[in-house]
Amino acid sequence: MNVSRREFLKASAAAAALSMVGGPCLAAGKDDGVDKWVKGVCRYCGTGCGVLVGVRGDKAVAVKGDPNNHNAGFLCLKGSMLIPVIYTPDRITEPMIRRGGKSSPLEKVSWDEALEFAAKPFRDAAAAAGPSAVAYYGSGQALTEESYLANKIWKAGFKTNNVDGNPRLCMASAVAGYLTTFGKDEPMGTYDDIDAATCFFIIGSNTSEAHPILFRRIAQRKENSPEVKVIVADPRRTNTSRIADMHMSFVPGTDLALLNAMAHVIINEEMDNQRFYNRYVNFVDNEGKPTTFENYKSFLADYTPEKAARLTGVPAADIVRAAKTFAESSASLSLWCMGINQRVRGVWANNLIHNLHLLTGQIGRPGASPLSLTGQPNACGGVRDTGSLSHLLPAGRMVANEKHRNEMEDFWGVPRGTIQPKMGLHTVALFEAMAKGDVKAVFIHCTNPAHTLPNLNKLTKGLETAFVAQTECFMDAETLKYADAVFPAAFWCETDGVYGCTERRYALTEQAIKPMGNCRPAVQILMDFAARAGIDPKLFPYKNAADIWEEWRTLSKGSPYDFFGITRARLKKESGIKWPCPTETHPGTRLRYVRGEDPLVPADHPDRIFFYGRPDGKANVFLRPYAPPFEPADKDYPFVLTTGRVIDHWHSATMTGQVPELRKAYPSAFVEINPEDAKKLRINNGDPVTLETRRDKMTFPARVTDTCMPGLVFCPFFDKKLLVNKLFHDAVDNASREPEYKICATKVYKQA
Ligand code: MGD
Ligand code: MGD
Ligand code: SF4
Q1: What are phi and psi of 248, to 5 degrees?
Q2: Can you tell me the distance from the alpha carbon of 286 to that of 346, in angstroms, rounded to the nearest whole number?
Q3: Distance 395 CA to ligand 1 centre (A)
Q4: For a FRET experiment, which of 392, 402, 538, 566 has its CA 20 to 30 Å from that of 629?
Q5: Residue 248: which domain range?
Q6: Which residues, at least 6 apart from 302, have a Cβ–Cβ distance to it below 8 Å?
Q7: C-alpha Rg value of the chain to the nearest Å
Q8: Is 516 a catalytic site residue?
Q9: Torsion over CA of 656, 657, 662 and 666, rounded to 10 degrees?
Q10: H-type helices in 19-143, by residue range?
């Protein structure tokens, strides 16, 4: 692209998003003739843009950005094209079962028959092999009420902690990063920090494609205040890096060395903030045992910029410049996503980002914060906060903690000892256990694992072996091939519930239209299913999702996740509220852990910042060494393959693939390859190029582009005709259990 950075910046601010404030909307209709506008949240990413759905008669006909939400009326293209997704002929509108086993066809049946057909194998498996023979596999795209309910049904009803979901593939390393550094999950910063930051440190996030409306806000901040610096650290030269003052492209998987080298420079150049860390920080070794600042300094002696330069490929001078800019700017904001989390050392990488903030005091002030970008619209509110993962319980409680289990048992009204003390199976282990026959029946909700799990040839064996009950909306979903019973779920604005996005913001999606055909809201499906599976209905005495919200809100009261003040009535009026929010008159919290801002910090606390997630109120700076990725390039497999997103498709494209404009933009997957490599391998644009890994091989059309550095190739994973995840290993971080989707070794050759 032959445009200057300034031109690109301008274009990014304007064109990454479509302006829709009060204007006409792209949809199956026009703004005029709309009977009413119903408030909601975009179905797609963790940016959590507010939308207004235009309804005419009994149909949704339009969508536009909510001018009163953080997105100020802006939406990106896919968000603005949600209406055709509702009305695609691909919608599943009737329950279906496979009467004759996995190889028989799906037949449409009544709800009663489908529910009974699905419930029996769960009853039988639990009776014959115990509670751990059943499982729930959920989603950061499910509504909060759905995940809270499922978590309760499985953990307190079936008495199994086999509750996991796609946030394990996504934010698990960020969760464990916050827990280990600050003692509690969820960030202290918010989107308001973007407007106050003077240095953006964007690492392992292609914000321009994955969080376009936030990228628009960053680009606008830079456009309006040219002194603002943007540093991007990403092996690929993405559109995000094109607005950067500095792009550090490095050998994939070497971030730990880069981040430690930045800390080294900060201390050696005396840019550290001793007053801050003496007051608010504990230094701990790799095992979490107390150590001293002096030990930390000696540990970092091994991470000179020169040494890190040899490992990462980033020039030493650039590492020094990045460290100085980060430390000396008046307010530095770090933003990161899957380039950091989807790594076998993802938790460590999260800790090292937090280290930079804690060393410099770039935290707890407007614009100065670590802020992980959440991928899915409700991974935070729905799954992390409700504790709907195999090791968690609601509101920051842990399965392994007896007091926490007892608190939940008392609140849920089940006998002490009901919740099992042993953690359930994390995602990869769950699908392995299904393949072995240890888990015999799984309920899959709002996720498409047959497309998106790593090492698919291995892990789909679990879906071939276990009984699979699945909620879905679209026939395009790959997992349907393995489903024994399919429940047609009401889609997005056909039902109501709360989403919680990146910045601790809860917002309500209201029902705008009736569910299509015979579809039902997922909370109804879950309750009907559980009752038939033998779970005591006293556990779910709810008429609707609003009742579940009421219970969950009450449960949060007095916890470090307190949002008791966020009532449904308030959510209907307001366009999102950030927790902590303990009372109905509290406006919500912008700066978590900060006295005078966060209601959970006592007004008379002696310190300005109180990290109340830890017993002594101090955060941890960890001594985390560099460790290589699981499968770096080698002599036999000399390239690194990385995977990720494109702006116009959502994950497995079951939704975005229904929209002709989005499909045309990216009709199929491809492999990006650097021009130098392409020349050596005699590859031209469009040539069929085979990637061969230790698991499988697959041929993609080539895109010759400098986006990838030499030695690196990139494939998006949206295309079900080219399931790139068959090429990947399933190695996971040993703390968060998140898979390393970002790095595997591959051969690359042109197909004859
Ligand atoms: P990715 O494309 O997965 O997107 O959002 P992002 O994480 O921003 O990868 C991010 C970057 O990591 C890539 O640019 C890649 O080059 C870089 N990377 C690869 N290896 C390394 C490494 O070793 N170190 C570092 N530092 N970086 C590396 C993901 C987010 O997007 C998520 S989690 C979800 S669930 C949502 N999905 C989604 C979608 O499917 N489509 C669109 N359009 N937007 C989405 N938004 C959300
Ligand atoms: P989606 O396509 O979002 O992907 O993985 P998935 O969650 O498996 O699947 C959502 C499913 O829910 C779709 O089948 C959709 O049709 C269905 N659906 C949509 N709306 C509704 C609804 O209202 N109700 C119900 N019941 N169903 C609905 C995402 C996962 O992928 C994530 S989060 C990450 S971060 C990983 N990223 C990643 C990567 O970066 N690289 C590679 N190679 N693989 C990855 N896989 C992971
Ligand atoms: Fe939807 Fe994300 Fe686009 Fe906002 S940025 S409109 S939440 S896809």
Answers
A1: -95, 105
A2: 14
A3: 27
A4: 392
A5: 172-372
A6: none
A7: 25
A8: no
A9: 120
A10: 77-80, 83-86, 111-129
Last residue of a domain, one of 323, 348, 372: 372
Q: How far is the CA of 452 from the centre of ligand 2 (A)?
A: 7
pLDDT of the residue at 25 = 44
CB of 495 closer than 6 angstroms to any ligand 2 atom: no
Cis, bond preceding 290 (omega within 30 deg of 0)? no
Instruction: Report the percent of the chain where pLDDT is more than 70.
Output: 96
Ligand closest to 63 (CA) is 3
In-domain check, residue 743? yes
Of the residues 39, 78, 152, 229, only one is catalytic, namely 78
Residue-wise pLDDT for 420-434, tens only, equals 999 999 999 999 999
Is 60 exceeded by the pLDDT of residue 345? yes
| SS3 state at 178 | helix
Whether the Cβ atoms of residue 334 and residue 204 lie closer than 8 Å to each other: no
**Is 489 near ligand 2, meaning CB less than 6 Å away?**
yes
Helix orientation angle between 316-328 and 255-268, rounded to the nearest 10 degrees = 60
Active-site residue, 375 included: yes
Helix residue spans in 225-313 (DSSP H):
255-268, 274-280, 293-300, 305-312
- Total of domains in the chain: 2
Tally Cβ neighbours within 10 Å of residue 311: 18
Contact 173, 550 (CB under 8 A): no
Question: Which pLDDT value is given to residue 27?
Answer: 42
**pLDDT surpassing 50 at residue 23:** no
pLDDT bucket at 31, cuts 50 / 70 / 90: low
pLDDT (mean) for 524-553: 97
Q: What mean pLDDT do residues 58-77 have? A: 96
Distance of alpha carbon 728 from alpha carbon 595, whole angstroms:
46
58 assigned to some structural domain: no
Q: Between the CA of residue 194 and those of 166, 171, 223, 331, what are the distances in Å?
A: 28, 21, 13, 10
What CATH number does the domain containing 177 carry?
Answer: 3.40.228.10
Give CA–CA dist 5/721, Å, rounded: 36
Q: Is 510 part of a structural domain of the chain? A: no
pLDDT at 3 over 60: no
Q: Of 372, 403, 426, which marks where a domain is finished? A: 372
Predicted confidence at residue 752, as pLDDT, reads: 81
- The domain that contains 718 carries what CATH number? 2.40.40.20
Domain contains 281: yes
